[in-house]
Fold this sequence. Notes:
With 756 residues, this protein is mainly beta. It has one domain (2-755): Maltoporin, Chain A. Helix content is 4%, strand content 54%. β43 (724-727) and β44 (736-739) form a beta hairpin. The longest helix has 12 residues, at 2-13. The radius of gyration is 26 Å and the shape is globular.
Amino acid sequence: MFHKAYLGASISLLAIATTAQAQEAPEGGLEEIVVTAQKREQNLQQVPVSVTALSAEAIANKGITQFENLAQTAPGLTITQGTQRTGNSINLRGIGTSVFSIGVEPAVSVVVDDVPILNQGQAFTTLTDIERIEVLRGPQGTLFGKNASAGVVNIVTRAPTDTFSGRIAASATTDEEYRVEAGISGPLGENVGFRINGFYSDFRGYVKNLATGNYLGADESWGIRGKLVADVSDNVKISISAEHSETDGNSMPRTVRSFQPGATVFGASLATNLAGINAGPDNYLLNQNYDGIAKGKSTSVSGRISIDLGSVDLISITSYQKWGLDTQDDVEQINLPVFGSPTGLVQSSPYDTKNVTQELRLVSTAPGPFQYILGAFYSNGETDRSFDRGPSGPLLSKWVSNAGTETYAAFAQGTYDLAETTHLDAGIRYNHEKIDVSFQRLNIPATQPANNAICLNVCTGNASDNAVTGKIALRQDVAERVMVYASFATGYKGQGYDVSSGFTPFRAANPVKAETSHTYEIGLKSRFLDNRVQFNVTGFWTDYKNFQSQSAVVLPDQSIQFQLNNVGKLRTRGVEVELQTKPTRALSFDLAGTFLDAIITEYPLANCNTIETTAPVCFDIDGSGPGTARAQNLAGKRLPNAPKFMFNASAMYDIFMDSMPFDAFVTLDYRYQSRVNFDLFQNPLYFQKAYGVLNGSIGVRQRDDQYRVTLFVNNLFDKHFASNVGGLVGGPATAVNQVLSRNSRRYFGIRANYNF
């Protein structure tokens, strides 16, 4: 009954509804949006970068509580989910990290309060007490460094308030997630302010394991963050922030999507094990003998000192991060003993990461035609990972590894007003990086393989590299509130090692080269119709060289092996359009779309996929016939999880009720994306067809926003979609499994907020 009433109300208001805007808006018009995309506060419409900004208001209206929810709101952003957070990939304009190793860097940098995180898995956590999220598309290496060759997700948390205030929020959903959040903020004396926020969340999970009766994807988590800001003098301001969070859950669920009759997993009948389960894109059941675990801890401390030197500010940002994730997974996904073990084949892989960063900036503040930022950056990060897959059998693998990176960088960026309406932006960054890895195999075979193919003792590798990246942009104010720009930027992703079960002395001695990119961009940013319409459009073309991925290589003894290497070139090009309107005081809506042509331009010796292993797709590498290594040429093929079309539409309509102490509102959010293949090697079974998802909410709020109560629905029409598709371990090539995210199912919920 509830969902029918909700559907009727939503449809009746769809034509006159839209998304809440980022900040308080002038009556009948759009608000000014301030971002820090260029490490100083600027109006979004004056920044020559393709940026999507979400404020605290928009985040609350859209119900964004997890990092992966951002893929539903930011054009050009997709997230490929692995079986654990460490295997997730953040992709912008079709580019992400397709190799998941502690010795390989991500292509999209995630920055929290000016501090870059080391491991991309750290990003996939609860979002709480957030002031603003900025998604910057395209290389951002000049200001954000080496891990930003495809873009940046910049997260800004809320600062202490000048007056005492507090907030309590709670939510519950029909798929049994219960969440509470509370915080207080205010002054501590005349010159000191504080802010404390904490949350607790308990989620049942969403895919049922028939063997245990439990739901996978379950998670219980909590966290706390504190901030202290002090005006030490008229010229000196100090900010200290600390946070800690913990999570205790089980495995990210993988369900069987398809298989052929007679298929087996390690000799066991797959059909027998899946009795009562209908394999398919809408399969939310599994039958495996172990639920797995996923336990994580994160601690971070940062300090910021800002000194006003008159015409320039000196800013120092220091941080320490510690993050760990302990995981165990049922590898073969069946409810039968495997290799003599009652729990089957279990894979454990704990991660422990530490990172220290220091950044110094000189930021000009005096008025004039020339503004600049000068900076220096240092980071020292280390990750330990162990791996145990067993207890026996052909996939037995046990090893420990370590990867360390040390980075020194200097950067500068300036803006010069060539004329009153013409502006030139230019920046440069010098980066020096050292990387070292170690790997020790713990299960040494009785017979040593040929070609020095495994590390019998400890294998070590170390490398260093210097790189220069830069950006130049020309902006022209063609009318009041209308700006056009053209820019050129270079990107850099550092050297890497494929630290995985196949690590060998050859890999230790041969790190992959750095990945580089050149981006050409033109854009229009405009506001018109009395500040009621904002229209931004960007056209881009990016060429990538030395793309890091798996490929076939010839070893010194002329034998052939597949491993991480610099194997090719990529090209991404497209158009991004964003439209925001507020035609009346009550009505606002957003439209955003991306056309993306992301293809491989050079990849001559790529792995064959597991289905197409013969001509005309695959060929013998050395031409000597059957029994030799085979490869395929991927030139002209699309990149994985890079939809050709993406479209977002959101709407909000306020219903002002003067006779009541509160007003009502309705919101709708719709996202569509075209078909994608999740396999770089183009397996025809690893695809997700086009789909669209509609979310919405109805609620009431007091006019000064002291309280708000919201009824919401996720995925109103229950459109099932996979966030990753791959092979079934131990099964035939035609057996396919999938990672289904929680958002691929419909659920309802209620949220309540009280501010004081």
